[in-house]
Design a protein that fits this description.
Layout lengths: L1 H42 L2 H6 L1 H26 L10 H35 L7 H22 L1 H4 L2 E4 L2 E7 L4 H43 L3 H41 L9 H36 L16 H8 L8
Antiparallel strand pairs: 1-2
Helix pairs in contact: 1-3, 1-9, 3-4, 3-9, 4-5, 7-8, 8-9
């Protein structure tokens, strides 16, 4: 009987290893696209960075997920012993914790870094803001964000514990089921509703900002530019729908379905087919979304740059965009803004 059990476990491990082996191309493609998006968003002018800070947040969260999946795929293929489970709920919860908690942390500290950078640009002269300093500050900011995101997500990683002899069963550490329900409510508000509110608020802010440009264009009687701004405003609304819907759908599939299955003891050694199928389906959908989203974001970033920053200077010599000097730049400078 033990031999039959070992044979079944070996078959499960082989299928799980093949599953991760087939996922490696998607993981690598997601990692490349989101890394390009992160660096492109960072290198754009500060108005772009203020607009796409949440996109940078989501993209960096996708990069963290891709790296975590790549790391775990390598362990599953080359390191783990045959009698161990190649993929379990604990590892999945760790990956989800790093992505969600780390992504929110990255977003918060990106806002802080942008605020400090904007203040430095306004105070320092243009000659002090050289290329070498910008590259060095960029490197420091990237490593700081990664360190903070991983560090502050550590408490969530310690939440889940494993049974030694049942590696597919997940046990909550120091939580009973009633406390876990309250925890899920708080967790949902913090990591699910709050990012949605931030995304919607950011788009409303940009909508109002574009409306001011529309009024300014009407004042100077440039109807063609005003019409272009109105058309681009529709694209902003479409982008809001795309970003919020993808966030809601894929977050619900990837995070909450496996977590609730684990909380109800549906993922066990005896009955793990449905749970592992949902986990695999969630990972595939999430990787597909991480591949598609950077393409959508880059498309709208290009459209936004062409429509709204036609008459703005480069961010090196631009002061606060909400200041009265914006109209001076609007009238005097007739060249498109470029990324530094």
């Amino acid at each position: 009987m033990d031999n039959l059990t070992n044979i079944d476990h070996a078959r499960d491990h082989t299928s799980e290893n093949k599953f991760f082996y087939y996922l490696l191309p998607l993981v690598v493609l997601s990692l490349i696209l989101n890394s390009i998006s992160c660096f492109a968003i960072i290198r754009c002018n500060d108005l772009h960075k203020m607009l796409f800070v949440l996109i940078f947040n989501l993209a960096l969260g996708d990069v963290v997920t891709a790296i975590a999946l790549s790391f775990h795929s390598g362990i599953s293929l080359f390191v783990l012993k045959p009698n161990w489970t190649a993929f379990n709920v604990d590892t999945y919860c760790r990956i989800s914790g790093v992505t969600i908690v780390g992504g929110i942390t990255v977003g918060i500290y990106t806002l802080a870094a942008i605020s400090i950078e904007r203040f430095r640009i306004m105070v320092l002269r243009k000659k002090d803001n050289n290329l070498a300093r910008k590259k060095w500050n960029l490197i420091i900011m990237i490593f700081s964000l990664w360190t903070l995101s991983f560090g502050l997500s550590f408490p969530y990683l310690y939440l889940f514990r494993m049974y030694p002899r049942e590696p597919c069963r997940c046990e909550l550490y120091s939580f009973n089921i009633q406390q876990f329900r309250y925890y899920l409510i708080i967790y949902s508000i913090i990591v699910y509703l709050l990012p949605l509110i931030m995304i919607i608020t950011a788009y409303i802010r940009i909508w109002m900002y574009i409306t001011r440009f529309t009024i300014a264009n009407l004042i100077i009687s440039n109807n063609s530019i005003a019409l272009s701004v109105r058309n681009r405003r529709k694209h902003i609304f479409k982008m809001l729908i795309v970003s919020t819907m993808t966030f809601m759908i894929f977050t619900a599939v990837v995070i909450y379905v496996p977590t609730m299955l684990a909380a109800r003891d549906k993922i066990t050694t005896e009955n793990k087919g449905t749970g592992l199928f949902m986990i695999r389906l969630g990972i595939i959908l999430y990787l597909i979304s991480t591949i598609i989203n950077p393409l959508i974001y880059n498309y709208y970033c290009s459209a936004f740059r062409q429509a709204y920053f036609m008459y703005l200077p480069s961010w090196n010599c631009c002061t606060n965009p909400m200041s009265p000097k914006i109209m001076y730049y609007f009238h005097r400078l007739r060249k498109p803004a470029v990324c530094d």
